[in-house]
Specification:
- The structure holds 2 protein chains of 2 kinds.
- Chain A contains 3 helices and no strands.
- By secondary structure, chain A is mainly alpha-helical.
- Chain A has a single domain, classed as Helix Hairpins.
- Chain B is mainly α.
- Helix content of chain B is 77%, strand content 0%.
- Chain B has 6 helices and no strands.
- Chain B is globular and about 55 Å long.
- Chain B starts with a helix and ends with a helix.
- Classes of the chains: A mainly alpha, B mainly alpha.
- At the A-B interface, α1, α2 and α3 of A face α1, α2, α3, α4 and α5 of B.
């Protein structure tokens, strides 16, 4: 790859990661169903992983640390999705709804 | 000669951004899931452009193959499709969330434009062998901790399912 190309600069990857982060924040804040909130959290994790790999490629290309962190993020995301979906199914069986606004009586 | 790498890169970025917008703004959960799949594939393409093909393969395997299927099962298990609540609730809540999102976007945008990252020396051509060697050499303890976390989450999910069934019947 020669210089000057768009795919060879760090900033474009950082902007894509930042856009994913902001979309995730927007989705977590205004979505009503719990599953859609979980999907938005997955967006945030993907943006973080993209940033890790971009920094590893451009700033410190000696070791594979960023890629290893991204693999760890993938493992954490899988575990988190399994637990969260089990809890969502349990909430649906108890309340017959997956809206976050109707869960005010979860304290007891 | 026309270099095809650049238009394909722009297409991948557009696919990622459009998938993220679909995920956030669509009215139904299943369309949000399809947008999430498009975003995952776009990020896998960006990993290929970042010289990390192993991560691209793992992205498709783990996210598209496992997590998305899990979310699709949860969507199908949680009631019939037509009884879903509409996602567009009030314009006030949406505008408040949009303000928070835009403020965070502008903050990080100014930070990214202000800081000049020092470019590293040397070429970036790490093989999968290097990743495996680092995983079992320097990062062996976090690797084992991740496996422990996954085992605990699997057992926790099974326990939650059993507890729920016993209480309902």
């Amino acid at each position: 790859m020669t210089d000057g190309f768009l795919s060879n600069s760090l900033n474009i990857y950082l902007f894509v990661g930042l856009f994913l982060l902001c979309c995730g924040i927007l989705g977590v804040l205004y979505r009503r169903t719990l599953i859609a909130m979980l999907i938005s959290i997955e967006l945030i994790m993907n943006g973080a992983g993209l940033n890790f790999v971009a920094f590893n490629r451009f700033v410190s290309p000696e070791g594979p640390e960023g890629m290893i962190f991204t693999l760890f993020v993938m493992g954490i995301a899988a575990a988190e999705a399994a637990i969260a979906l089990a809890i969502i199914i349990l909430i649906f069986r108890k309340y017959r709804s997956i809206e976050s606004a109707e869960m005010e009586e979860m304290k007891d | 000669m026309i270099n095809l790498g650049e238009p394909i890169f722009i297409l991948i970025v557009i696919m990622t951004v459009a998938g993220a917008l679909t995920t956030v703004l669509s009215g139904s959960v299943i369309y949000a899931l399809i947008g999430l799949v498009a975003t995952m594939f776009g990020i896998a393409g960006l990993y290929v452009y970042l010289n990390a093909p192993f991560l691209a393969m793992m992205q498709i395997l783990v996210y598209v193959g496992a997590i998305t299927i899990l979310i699709a099962f949860a969507i199908m298990l949680a009631g019939p499709f037509y009884k879903r609540p509409k996602e567009w609730t009030g314009i006030g809540k949406f505008s408040a969330a949009l303000v928070v999102s835009v403020i965070s976007f502008l903050t990080f945008f100014t930070i990214i434009m202000k800081v000049s990252w020092t470019e590293g020396k040397g070429a970036f051509n790490l093989l999968t062998k290097d990743i495996g060697r680092a995983l079992f050499d320097r990062y062996a303890f976090p690797f084992e901790l991740i496996s422990l976390v996954i085992v605990v989450s699997i057992i926790g999910a099974i326990m939650l399912a059993m507890f729920s069934r016993g209480k309902n019947d």
